Amino acid sequence: MHYNYKYRLNPTEALTETLLHHVDTCRQLYNHVLYKLNEEDGIPARYEVQGKLPDLKTWWDDLGDVHSKVLQMVVKRVYDNLSTLKAQKENGHAVGMLKWKPPREYRSLTYNQSGFKLKNTSGRPVLWLSKIGEISIHLHRDIPENATIKQVTVKQEPTGEWYATFGIDVDEATPEKPEKPEQVVGIDVGILKYAHDTDGYAIESPDFSEERGRLERAQRDLSRKEHGSANWEKQRRVVAEYHADLKRKRRDFLHKLSNYYATEYDLVAVEDLDAKGLVELPGNSRNRAGAAWGTFLRMLEYKCEREGTHFVAVDPKDTTKECAACGAKTDKPLWVREHSCPSCGFEADRDANSAWNILSRGLEDVGVGYSESTSSESLCDSDVRTRDLLSLTPVETALPVDTVVSAKRVVETGSPTLKERTASAVSE
Ligand SMILES: [Zn+2]
Which chain residues have CB less than 5 Å from ligand 1, an ion? Predict the structure, then answer.
């Protein structure tokens, strides 16, 4: 399995100068390669272009300062960007559309396979980079012992901070997924709340309005300053810092939430990305919610893989309309927050009902067979069909209970407390 591990670097002033020189040389090479490709009729193979690097060095002195593998990765970067662009615009002349990189948009360099080493001399960890030197690194977590470091990317963030990202391969046996998952959960991404699951929990979206307000004020201040002035540059850093802070907090929450579901359950069912709710949101918040949901799904998927948990992304169609108890479809406008089935009488929170539908589809997708309900007390107390999934859980938990857990608690505790369900609330 492939992972990225990111660490903070603390280069001295002299090393910072060297790093910046290397990054800028790479940027110029990037623009040069692009310029040359524009002159060509067809596009030569990447290795052909890389093969010309030694010749280039004979008249371009700065190239000699940079590790040769790093230069090769610059060529690869041009080609990678080309293929991304080609995928986006199928028929256009992709090379002509690729843009030159100004310094602000080119901030990193990559060592691949060789030219780097992680050292730990006398308890002070450093990252050694060929032709640059030893940079102090903050190893806040260890790289697994059975890992192979494939490459390292060194980047200066707009805040001015330097980071090293290690691409590592870990040779690990992924745990088997249980044939008969017992702890199963369906999660609905709510519109008003962050997520709603079949165990009756609504996870509220964390409140970042303070952080967002701070960022917006800083951006307004920036727009009032003279572009390029010293004050402007100072303010630009402030904006970048606030931005990074907000992003980190959002990711942190998603990490904890996905960790919780991947470790507590044997099977997790979610809706595939075209979550219907997003369409109903106004543009801006839709983009934000959509991006967060996508990130959450990716995190959840790889964490489930790592934990040996089934991960199922199901067809989102009609999960809101369908009755989780009998399957009858009813239209519900967005403002109707309750599900009340005209056909069987089942009542639940709108999102809880969807979560049950999602779980039911997830179980079907995985092909997990469950026997018909053995319980005589069906969910709806009537003769209508009771979904198989309802027999998975004791009857008292089949009725979704709305337990709102504040996101703050999830963030602070890493969330095992989420499981503390009050039995009394359920049996009433
Ligand atoms: Zn029904």
Answer: 323, 325-326, 328, 341, 343-344, 346
